[in-house]
Known about the structure:
- By secondary structure, the protein is of the alpha/beta class.
- 39% of the residues lie in helices and 18% in strands.
- It is built from 18 helices and 22 strands.
- The strands form five sheets. Strands 1, 2, 7, 8, 9, 10, 18 and 19 form an eight-stranded mixed sheet that branches. Strands 16-12-15-14-13-4-5-21 form an eight-stranded mixed sheet, covered by helices on one side.
- Helix 2 packs parallel to helix 11 and helix 10 packs parallel to helix 12.
- The longest helix has 35 residues.
- The protein is globular.
- The protein starts with 9 loop residues before the first strand and ends with a helix.
Amino acid sequence: MTEKCLGENHYDIVIIGAGLAGLTLCRHLLLETDKTILLLEKRDQTPPPHQKVGESSVQLAGYYYSRVLDLEEYLWRNQFMKYNLRFYWRSGGKDNSRFEEYGKSYIRPFSNIPSYQLDRNTFEAELLRRNLENDRFTFRQSVTTIDEALSTRSDNTESDSSEPHSVSFTVTGEESRTVTAGWVVDTSGRGKFLARRKGLMRKNSIRHGAFFWWVDGLVDIDRLTDLSPKEIRTKSERRHTGHLPSWLATNHFCDEGLWFWVIPLQGKTSLGLVFDRAVVNYNDVSTVEKATAWVCERFPCFARDLPDRKVLDSDGLASFSYDCAQTISADRWALAGEAGRFTDPLYSPGSDLISIYNTLIVDAIKTDDNEELVSKCRLYEQMMRAVYQAYVPTYAVSYDALGDQEVFSLKYAWELTVYFGGYVFPFINDLFTNRRFLLAFMRLFSQLGPINQAVQGYLSAFYQWKKTAIEPPQEPLYFDFMEIGMLREAEKTFYEVGVEVDEAKKILGRQVANLEVLARFIGAHVASVVLDEKRVLTNRSFIEGLDIQTLEFDPEEMRRRYAACIDDEEMYPWPFDPYVMDRFRDAERRRPEADAAEPSTAMEMAS
Length: 607
């Protein structure tokens, strides 16, 4: 007897929580399976009347929403297409009251895999509307209480437990009702329904907070200036940044351990300040008035606009990041979205994690053979954890690097190269549910774990050194991340579609090798800046002697090593121009006291 024959009080899947994770999971299941779904929501309105945060998506989630969930036409018609992520820094010699006085790092072309700026309320309303059109979908809101009794296997073996789960719930004004379900999935967000009940909640090493608000109309950052409309159109910086509207990007105004976002939505603008709590006290920015004043003081160009804006809504989180002990089980339960794990909004990974988790959960639900399900859930839990943990050093180790354009440009190029080749490429080829590929993926990316940790620590230490050793640029600098050749190489994987598993494994292997070259470049470039010696960047002996598994930031050891290699005239064969970062070196001035009491160059030390 199939699950659908168990009666009107049985559903194949009960999902708890009608937010982004739950609504997208429902649509995914309705498109790819013949399962019946009951979606439970405690709120009286879905989506709620308050504005929802988390609007920015990147390539993986953009692909999931448009292609996997078949929402491409809706997204193009109703939401803004996103113009990548762009980052800005104050210039040391300016008062920074005009947008053109900020240094800028960016990717100039639109991505070939579109992403979107999502008004979460209208997007989730559309998801719910489409789900309700399917007669296999049942939705109950105003749910006041939920209780569950999850069945489990009788022992630790791979034996099947055919007993369904039991879920009891009460809707306002109705009697309590009990249903059975083959699967229970928690997408309740920060309510963390199952994680709390099963004791799965865990802390992580990220200690960040955020305050965010929405204002009426478009905050056009290009207009934060004294320039006339004609002067804005014809300003010379467009040689670098291009003619596409900057406001379409997720715009980040950066400083040490913090960033301020400006995200366009239809008819409104989302604003948010995210910060390491070691550098900003949440209470200092916990209201719209406080946050507006803080932002206008730190990034003075916004004093031209934000104080006069009509505020539509606001919210904040003094602490938002956490881990989870487990998010999927062969006992036929799972957690997705913020009901499980959450890292940080920098780079907009939340929707990506939803996309990956939903994909794995749907595949597990489609698996009828219990032995196969046990094997998949074990592997998928490892995958979910690995994806999450790969993000943690980005936020816990090197968040301070947001304070320097040069250091952050290296950091972001590294992280984006990992993302393009390691996450977007497998996802657009439906490879994360292929066991053969996934085992190779886990092996290869386990090699990158120590390198990633080393790179993050190395860049953080470089930033702290630069704070005291080098004066920041007095004029704005412009840098396209794609000038770093390894990132361009990773972006080419967007066009590797429909590949077989064996070929995909080779492509992944080449991307890991590409990342190892990038880690070596980061090590060499930093050493060349610290030693104030460009020839470090081409010294083959020095570069090949870098241990990219550790990359310890030790200026004295850099001097010693380069002194030992200085007679080597053989040049390292970089696959791109190794001097792409020279604009930062040329624009910055070394503080006189930086090398006091130390040999000024490795050559002097060698002599």
